[in-house]
């Protein structure tokens, strides 16, 4: 990792190259904070300039060279002649550069131009005035800039552009380049926030995490544990930026480091106001509006890491105790104030109130901050919190993937469960840990037996609600429905118990195809979130599983997008709530797969596998989605490996997920060249789903058979007339039973495929495309192309154009449906169709441009090389005159 690949900054690179070429101005200066990537951007930009057109001189100014005349240009100028006046030396230097340029355009690339000595700055300004010269360079924010350099942009000789932090997508790309592989989304977000988009700090963070073993690889995905070991180089870098501080300013920085975000009024009570103002002027702290309060934060997240670690232990404890005293004195007015006081009390060793610690731990868990909640709950137990602290700690440990430790905590307070309300809580938490945490399927009978011994209606309802969802996950659907409905019918049941029972019903309704009723039930649960979150925050997982199942079965990709972008997703990622993060990654992979985005699907699935590696609840589901993504790409080997892992990791307590795993198994078999076996598996799965009453799943599995060319195949039991329905007929039946717009669309596709009607296939493709289901649309159009070619129909050309347009929006897709439906369409024809759609060109031009490349991406690199361009912007200039089929330009 000595030097990483340059990524991102495409817009800035284009601006630099355009400025040098003289299209816009005569140069550009990039300004920004240290480490933001100015120097690397400058080097990348000038490195790409061809030497036969440009005479490039690189100037690296420094504090050392700033003390001597022309010290900044010592790398490019020969020894000066004697006896010349200062003006004569400038004229001589310009003449030397023009002679050495030999007719080429002069480019002065000045790194850290603010450090140029006065004569060098004057010469740079003089060169910038020449018609055949450009000046490009960098300036650091907050530094004194020589007047000749400042005049460059005030005189209109160069542009001045602020280089800001890397955006999240470029931060992710840089992380991939640094570690040489994919980094999971949660780790990317946390490292991105900690580095604040600064490439240099990001690289140092990754070095530190790698060297300390805190950045680990699972299933090809790198995951950061969240523990940060600051390397000496990183600490020194931050120390230089913070600089020497007076005692008063240091007190400001330290208080903000331990208390941020800290209200400005609260800070003023602890330190002198002029010290706060000076710290803000120095760029050490920043003010942020928060509702009607002005909060103070450190200017960079890493400042806090360094300051906190360098602060002596005794002063650390004193500062945090002081912060807690201040906030308690003015009153905990905001919801988060309780959590902040508890965290300060815990860190300062002044936490003595177990009730306060329990409340704070519950609040942290409700925010899905699992590490903080664990520390607070353990402190509450140590402070004498008794059963309440033990119950909460065990629950949190369960979701921290430490079920054995959770059982130990619960068993230690088993004798403290005399009251039935307390006994029901103990039973449900212990049942949850043993059932989902340790995969002990026998827990259902155990908790059912214990529940019958309770006489209190509310206590019994809580146990029954847990028994219901366990039975659903174990695939005892009738009993699950009966128990859940019984809880809802009990007025004495708590809000949390009732809404857990409602989630069980909503999940069951979804798999049965009652999608509208399922959606209404989930909305009711979510409407009461404020009433159940404190008692049962993990209920949100049941909500998301029910909602995610419904969205997936209905093909609602927009709904999945909204789900993975809502508050729960942000909290889960930020708080290391891995079950939530992993499940949402599975949904992201599913949506990407149906869009034909195989790269995104595989990355999301691998991320889910890595995040869920220590938990078995959704681990099998994650691996099955990985198998689906690999099969979509035609990667039979990886699909088979993932399927084997899914079978190994699938928990016996999550049998309700079997339809997803079996669909993935069929896709894996088909990708591996065993379509007949895949078809048999799907027919068997249809029979099992029909027996279980899972009509929502059955519709999707029947459509998988359609995609394998089995629309006219017989399926299911014999009818009264002795015959059997075809797949298309059964799908038509289900389209009247299963809610939503997707089932009728699947049935339409099936009927058109069974009857060999290209018009019907194209119509179904339109419906799929309207819903964003580009993969299914492409498969339907491919089958239509095949039928039209057989009939020698003149409509085949139009259909092929539509196919190319659909494939242009996909990554690598290599499904049996596409292969089987278009046996006469060669790989070359596929790629030419894609290129024509992407470029907006005619097919003839696409053929000419195709060369021997087998992918659009490789083709573009060939075009870049052939035309001597390095970016899409330059490609547009080079190819802008090529007409497209619709009169537009080619690129």
Automatic annotation (TrEMBL):
Tree of life domain: Bacteria
ATP-binding in keyword set: yes
GO annotations of cellular component type: cytoplasm
GO MF term list: adenylate cyclase activity; ATP binding; DNA binding
CDD domains associated with the record: LuxR_C_like (cd06170)
One GO-annotated biological process of the protein: regulation of DNA-templated transcription
InterPro entries given in the database record: AAA_16 (IPR041664), P-loop_NTPase (IPR027417), Sig_transdc_resp-reg_C-effctor (IPR016032), Tscrpt_reg_LuxR_C (IPR000792), WH-like_DNA-bd_sf (IPR036388)
UniProt signal peptide: none
UniProt keyword terms in alphabetical order: ATP-binding, Nucleotide-binding
Keyword ATP-binding: yes
Pfam families per record: AAA_16, GerE
Domain spans labelled HTH luxR-type: 818-883
Listed PANTHER family: TESTICULAR SOLUBLE ADENYLYL CYCLASE, TRANSCRIPTIONAL ACTIVATOR DOMAIN
Name recorded for this polypeptide: LuxR family transcriptional regulator
The species this protein was found in: Verrucosispora sioxanthis
Organism lineage: Bacteria, Bacillati, Actinomycetota, Actinomycetes, Micromonosporales
């Amino acid at each position: 990792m000595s030097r990483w690949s340059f990524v991102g900054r495409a817009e800035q690179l284009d601006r630099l190259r355009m400025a040098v070429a003289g299209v816009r101005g005569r140069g550009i200066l990039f300004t920004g904070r240290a480490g933001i990537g100015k120097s690397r951007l400058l080097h990348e930009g000038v490195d790409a300039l061809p030497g036969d057109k440009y005479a490039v001189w690189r100037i690296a100014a420094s504090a050392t060279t700033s003390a001597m005349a022309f010290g900044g240009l010592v790398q490019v100028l020969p020894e000066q002649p004697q006896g010349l006046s200062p003006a004569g030396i400038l004229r001589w230097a310009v003449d030397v550069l023009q002679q050495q340029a030999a007719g080429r355009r002069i480019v002065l690339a000045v790194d850290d131009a603010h450090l140029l000595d006065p004569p060098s700055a004057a010469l740079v300004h003089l060169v910038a005035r020449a018609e055949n010269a450009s000046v490009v360079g960098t300036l650091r924010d907050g530094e004194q800039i020589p007047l000749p350099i400042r005049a460059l942009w005030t005189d209109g000789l160069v542009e001045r552009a602020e280089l800001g932090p890397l955006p999240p997508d470029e931060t992710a790309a840089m992380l991939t380049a640094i570690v040489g592989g994919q980094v999971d989304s949660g780790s990317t977000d946390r490292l991105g926030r900690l580095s604040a988009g600064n490439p240099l700090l990001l690289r140092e963070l990754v070095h530190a995490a790698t060297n300390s073993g805190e950045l680990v690889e699972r299933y090809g995905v790198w995951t950061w544990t969240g523990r940060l070991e600051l390397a000496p180089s990183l600490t020194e870098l931050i120390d230089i930026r913070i600089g020497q501080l007076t005692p008063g300013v240091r007190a400001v920085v330290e208080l903000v480091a331990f208390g941020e975000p800290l209200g400005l009024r609260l800070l003023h009570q602890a330190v002198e106001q002029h010290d706060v103002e000076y710290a803000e002027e120095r760029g050490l702290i920043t003010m942020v509006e928060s509702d009607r309060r002005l909060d103070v934060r450190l200017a960079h997240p890493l400042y806090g890491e360094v300051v906190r670690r360098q602060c002596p232990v005794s002063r650390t404890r004193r500062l945090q105790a002081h912060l807690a005293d201040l906030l308690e004195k003015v009153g905990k007015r905001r919801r988060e104030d309780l959590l902040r006081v508890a965290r300060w009390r815990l860190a300062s060793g002044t936490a003595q109130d177990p009730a306060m610690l329990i409340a704070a731990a519950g609040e942290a868990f409700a925010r899905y901050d699992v590490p903080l909640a664990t520390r607070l709950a353990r402190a509450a137990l140590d402070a004498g919190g008794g059963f309440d602290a033990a119950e909460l700690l065990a629950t949190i440990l369960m979701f921290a993937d430490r079920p054995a430790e959770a059982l130990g905590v619960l068993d230690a307070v088993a004798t403290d469960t005399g009251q039935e309300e307390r006994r029901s809580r103990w039973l449900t938490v212990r049942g949850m840990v043993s059932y989902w945490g340790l995969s002990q399927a026998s827990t259902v009978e155990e908790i059912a037996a214990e529940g019958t011994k309770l006489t209190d209606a509310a206590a019994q309802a809580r146990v029954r609600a847990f028994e219901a969802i366990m039975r659903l996950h174990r695939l005892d659907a009738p009993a699950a429905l009966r128990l859940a409905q019984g809880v809802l019918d009990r007025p004495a049941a708590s809000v949390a118990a009732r809404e857990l029972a409602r989630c069980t019903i909503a999940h069951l309704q979804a798999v049965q195809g009652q999608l509208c009723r399922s959606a209404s039930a989930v909305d009711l649960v979510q409407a009461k979130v404020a009433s159940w979150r404190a008692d049962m925050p993990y209920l949100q997982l049941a909500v998301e599983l029910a909602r995610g199942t419904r969205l997936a079965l209905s093909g609602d990709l927009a709904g999945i997008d909204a789900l993975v972008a809502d508050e729960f997703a942000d909290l889960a990622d930020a708080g290391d709530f891995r079950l939530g993060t992993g499940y949402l990654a599975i949904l992201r992979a599913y949506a990407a797969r149906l869009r034909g985005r195989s790269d995104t699907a595989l990355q999301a699935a691998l991320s889910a596998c890595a995040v869920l590696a220590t938990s078995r609840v959704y681990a099998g589901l994650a691996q099955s989605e990985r198998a689906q993504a690999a099969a979509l790409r035609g990667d039979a080997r990886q699909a088979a490996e993932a399927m084997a892992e899914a079978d190994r990791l699938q928990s016996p307590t999550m049998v309700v997920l079997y339809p997803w795993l079996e669909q993935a198994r069929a896709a894996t078999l088909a990708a591996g060249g065993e379509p007949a076996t895949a078809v048999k598996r799907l027919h068997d799965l249809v029979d099992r789903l029909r027996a279980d009453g899972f009509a929502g799943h059955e519709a999707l599995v029947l459509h998988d058979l359609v995609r394998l060319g089995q629309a006219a195949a017989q399926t299911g039991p014999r009818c009264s007339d002795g015959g059997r329905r075809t797949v298309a007929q059964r799908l038509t039946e289900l389209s009247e039973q299963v809610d939503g717009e997707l089932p009728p669309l699947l049935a339409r596709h099936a009927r058109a495929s069974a009857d060999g009607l290209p018009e019907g296939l194209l119509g179904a493709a339109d419906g799929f495309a309207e819903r964003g289901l580009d993969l299914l649309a492409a498969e339907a159009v491919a089958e239509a192309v095949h039928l039209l070619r057989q009939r020698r129909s003149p409509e085949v050309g139009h259909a092929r154009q539509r196919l190319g347009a659909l494939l242009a929006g996909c990554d690598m897709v290599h499904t049996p449906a596409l292969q089987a439906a278009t046996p006469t369409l060669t790989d070359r024809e596929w790629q030419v169709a894609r290129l024509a759609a992407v470029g907006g060109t005619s097919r003839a031009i696409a053929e000419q441009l195709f060369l021997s490349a087998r992918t659009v991406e490789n083709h573009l690199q060939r075009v870049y090389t052939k035309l001597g361009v390095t970016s899409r912007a330059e490609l547009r200039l080079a190819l802008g005159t090529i007409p497209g089929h619709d009169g537009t330009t080619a690129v």
